[in-house]
Design brief:
The chain is an all-alpha fold. It has helices at residues 2-16, 18-26, 35-38, 50-62, 65-73, 79-105, 111-119, 121-152, 159-175, 179-182, 187-207, 230-237, 247-255, 263-289, 292-350, 358-375, 380-408, 414-433, 444-471, 487-492. It is globular, with a radius of gyration of 22 Å. Helix 4 (50-62) runs antiparallel to helix 13 and helix 17 (380-408) runs antiparallel to helix 18 (414-433).
């Protein structure tokens, strides 16, 4: 129990101490007008209150990641706590804050456009394609996972097919609505369900007669029933609860509704810390209620949704357990909606197709949902593996964007470079060793070749950054993003 409570306490301390340092390093401008105010369009750029932005951000980034991921991560034992706490404070929350704030300074731009500005235009096409693929996978995963959860608590005659169609119908309707109507009205209720159910789970776990495992020197080892190595697998199994590239596709949406840069630490850094708390509770519950072999069999037989059902009922009983399951269901549904909304916006920006008419929205939205529906027929575990790798590669890209931003502005860029470099190495090892990649297996050859490849990528990144900095005009926007929107263009004239 001490490790669970201590881990949550560390997450909160991380928010107050390290989060404040990250904010100071970024150098906010509280008096600068935000895109929500200057570029207000009634659709995506809409000023909303701080608490509502925070709830939307939490529901956008959460999905089933901080639940399904920690459930599967619990197979590795208490070492999962370590990755959640350290990853969340020093990597995930920094990642979310930096991309959210850089987007805010760039008129609410999405990650592909930010990558184009800070990493070079040739990168833009690769990032666009990669991000759109990720969002398609995310949206599909966040259709199938809530559908399986709903199917487990509804009569058999309803069936997965009908539930999937109903979720798609909700997504389609919500996609057409302005953000303050699609998310601003519904998400506060979703957020209340999530917060109350998570608190209930945590209280029942702590005050119940459960043996919650602690981190000790003796169990800081690989206890996975199938012997799956901790590195790099744990970094991909627990992503949304520690560090997730999907978040870099969501923070820019909220950057378009924030009305003061002071809100950034609470909205971006703070909500990632909240996600870390959710991940800690579900990892602890999974380890406390099941041994590794039983947990592995449940996951293999019914995906992590079966574990969610069992944990909820065992801790809270049938009635309140079902209510807790509903709290889990709102996460992927809200994240799936935001994933498809982001995908439409990014695709529209990429092909320069304005979304100012319902007809134009339909032209992009319907094919997206048609492709996603076809992907729902693919095995969930296969989708999850591809999603995990694409997710963490996106996190690396986002960290490189943040690093370049801080480097050009003469700030401390090590805070993003170090976690970005570590995740780069994990991504290279993963794709080199896994069947979805080069299938080389894990051994000294894979680790060595992956290290050389990672160092080569980092060398190119560092050299290109130096050249970019030397060539920058003193009046470049990249050096003067703190100025009011539109002022730099006026200065150049």
């Amino acid at each position: 129990m001490l490790s669970l409570l201590g881990g949550i306490a560390l997450l909160l301390v991380g928010y107050w101490v390290y989060g404040r340092y990250i904010e100071k390093n970024f150098q906010i401008e509280p008096d600068r007008q935000t895109p929500a105010e200057v570029l207000r369009d009634g659709m995506d750029f809409v000023p909303m209150p701080k608490w509502k932005n925070a709830v939307i951000e939490l529901l956008n980034i959460a999905g089933t990641g901080p639940i399904f991921g920690p459930i599967m991560g619990a197979l590795y034992g208490p070492i999962a706590y370590v990755w959640i706490v350290l990853g969340c404070i020093f990597a995930g929350a920094v990642h979310d804050y930096m991309i959210g704030m850089i987007s805010l300074r760039n008129d609410g731009a999405h990650l592909p456009e930010l990558a184009s500005k800070y990493l070079g235009r040739p990168v833009r096409h690769v990032v666009n394609i990669f991000i759109m693929l990720l969002l398609m996978l995310v949206g599909t995963v966040f259709v199938t996972s809530p559908a399986s959860l709903i199917a487990d608590i509804t009569p058999d005659f309803i069936g997965m097919g009908l539930i999937t169609l109903l979720i798609f119908a909700y997504y389609i309707i919500s996609t057409f609505l302005p953000i303050d109507k699609a998310m601003g009205k519904v998400y506060p209720w979703f957020g209340a369900i999530l917060i109350l159910s998570t608190l209930a789970m945590g209280i029942a776990l702590i005050f119940g007669d459960h043996q919650i495992p602690n981190v000790t020197l003796a169990n800081l080892k690989n206890v996975h029933p199938e012997g799956t190595p901790i590195f790099p697998a744990l970094f991909f199994t627990i992503s949304c609860g520690a560090m997730s590239g999907f978040h870099a596709t969501q923070s820019p949406m909220v950057s378009r509704t924030i009305t003061n840069e002071r809100e950034g630490r609470f909205t971006f850094y703070g909500m990632m810390i909240a996600e870390g708390v959710i991940a800690m509770i579900w990892a602890a519950a999974s380890m406390s209620l099941f041994d590794g072999q039983t947990l592995a069999e449940m996951i293999n037989n019914g995906t992590p949704s079966l574990v969610v059902n069992q944990v909820s009922v065992m801790l809270l009983g049938n009635l309140f357990g079902t209510a807790a399951i509903m709290g889990v269901i709102v996460l992927p549904i809200s994240s799936g909606l935001s994933a498809f909304r982001s995908l439409r916006n990014i695709l529209a920006d990429y092909i320069h197709f304005k979304q100012d008419k319902l007809r134009n929205v339909l032209i992009l939205t319907l094919p997206i949902f048609a492709i996603s529906f076809i992907l729902t027929q693919v095995d969930f575990n296969l989708l999850w593996r591809y999603f995990n790798w694409a997710n963490q590669v996106t996190a690396v890209i986002a960290m490189f964007v943040a690093t370049r931003y801080l480097f050009l502005k003469n700030r401390n860029y090590w805070v993003t470079f170090i976690p970005g470099a570590l995740m780069l190495y994990a991504c290279v090892v993963y794709i080199a060793s896994q069947p979805i990649g080069f299938n080389l297996g894990l051994g000294w050859l894979t680790y060595s070749l992956s290290l050389l490849a990672s160092l080569a990528i980092l060398a190119v990144f560092i050299l290109s950054g130096r050249k970019q900095k030397e060539a920058l005009d003193p009046y470049s926007f990249l050096l003067n993003d703190q100025l009011p929107i539109g002022q730099l263009a006026e200065m150049k004239q």
